[in-house]
Amino acid sequence: MLEEVESWLATRSWSVTDRPLHRILAAKRATNQSVSVVLPALNEEETVGDIVAVIRHDLMHQVPLVDEIVVVDSGSTDRTSEVAAAAGARVVHRDAILPRIPAVPGKGEVLWRSLLVTTGDIVCFIDADLKEFSSDFVSGIVGPLLTDPDVDLVKGMYDRPLSGAAGQGGRVTELMARPLLNMHWPQLAGFVQPLGGEYAARRSLLEQLPFPVGYGVELGMLVDALHLVGLDALAQVDVGVRKHRHQDGQALGRMAAAIYRTAQLRLARGHMIRPALTQFERSADGFEPRTYSVDTEERPPMAEITEYATRKVA
Q1: Within a 10 A sphere around the Cβ of 25, how many other Cβ atoms?
Q2: Rounded to an integer, what distance in angstroms lies between the CA atom of residue 118 and that of residue 202?
């Protein structure tokens, strides 16, 4: 490990207990910064309501840390929108944001568009499939941004149990993202959960970053933020244990392909010969090939979008 990374781990890797809530709130009052929480959601009716309810109770009603909770629904066919709204979130459909640019499927697309419908100086992203959710996920990763002006982006780190076994979750991280980062961007080797969906950043940074439309958004954001603001402006906070719905192996394969594509673009800004992934499923007639396209599109920095610039002036 690079000496720079060892130093970073000692100075930019914290626990949620390092910043008591009263200290975070005092910093928020002193700096007059606002906080938006965004949940990208697709068919998450079983979990999204509980997450919203916990954030509202703990961090809006009991203490005034969070200023708004926005759920961006990316086309759910279940009751995700109704459940989120009933729990107290403002729900916006992905297609209603920036209709001039037709939306494409993908998590990164939703996160990118969320910048247009939120107002916080700090934007905190939380996945909508978390179980046994704790508001520490929000206060823990928002805290350094409020107390430390030199920090621009904070990732959550946590244990990810799989089928009851500790530390076995995050298979795409271990098999794809971590090797890529260690080999090509060794400064980022200290991140425990580089692909984790729980992180917060200053709007002033997010609006300058391109957003891969799919699952490559987290890796792309880390790499681009490293080049834009430097390693010392990035941090991570231990928030405990993350429990969520796990994907099957083939879904993970598609995620890995999108992440590899994101890395390839940043390594060469070139083009894949074949931006597709073929997987196999057994049927009565044997193994059947299924070919999926790999997310190759990226959205430009939000600061370049006319509607966003107009909103900021207004």
Answers
A1: 17
A2: 12
Return d(Cα 204, Cα 34) in angstroms, integer.
Answer: 13
How many CA atoms are closer than 13 Å to the CA of 140, on its beta-carbon side? Answer: 23
- Beta strand spans in the chain (E): 13-15, 35-41, 68-73, 90-93, 122-125, 130-131, 153-159, 199-202, 211-212, 234-241, 243-244, 276-283, 286-293, 298-299
C-alpha torsion sign, points 170, 173, 176, 178: negative
Residue that has been written with the tokens 């910064």 in this structure: 33
212 touches 128 (CB < 8 A) = no
pLDDT tens-digit profile, the chain (314 residues): 789 999 999 999 999 999 999 999 999 999 999 999 999 999 999 999 999 999 999 999 999 999 999 999 999 999 999 999 999 999 999 999 999 999 999 999 999 999 999 999 999 999 999 999 999 999 999 999 999 999 999 999 988 765 555 554 478 888 888 888 888 898 998 998 999 999 999 999 999 999 999 889 999 999 999 999 999 999 999 998 887 566 777 888 888 988 999 998 898 764 444 566 666 576 787 667 777 777 668 899 999 999 999 986 66
Residue 216 phi/psi, 5° resolution? Answer: -80, 0
Read off the amino acid at residue 106.
G
> 153-159 and 234-241 as β-strands: parallel, antiparallel, unpaired?
parallel
Radius of gyration of the chain (CA): 19
| DSSP secondary structure letters along 78-123 | SSHHHHHHHHT-EEEEGGGSSTTS---SSHHHHHHHHTTS---SEE
